[in-house]
Structure prediction request, 108 residues.
Amino acid sequence: MEKRLFLIRTLDKEIKFALFLNFILIKRWLGTAYPHLFPQAEEEKESGIKKNKKGKQEKPLKATDWLEIFDPFVGDNIPQMEKYQVMPVMDAFRILNRKIRDAKKRNH
Prediction:
């Protein structure tokens, strides 16, 4: 960790800014592609209150329980564990996003 901090401190300001911008853009892209897995609305997250189109407040947002979603996804299927380990991350994100969306529909 100390080696990385030293390396980061030696980077130019422009490179640090480029890395920061890259992180923000990737985060936004993931939030657009997988809105239930990577929620974007920071102000909603901070306040815990979501407003609908008419400006009225809706129920407070609840945090996603990742383990509740991940356990059924992988489960105790030991023979298939290798399959899950080599699964492309975009496929896993798509499946998890759908499971979160479905769980939210069931809870509302």
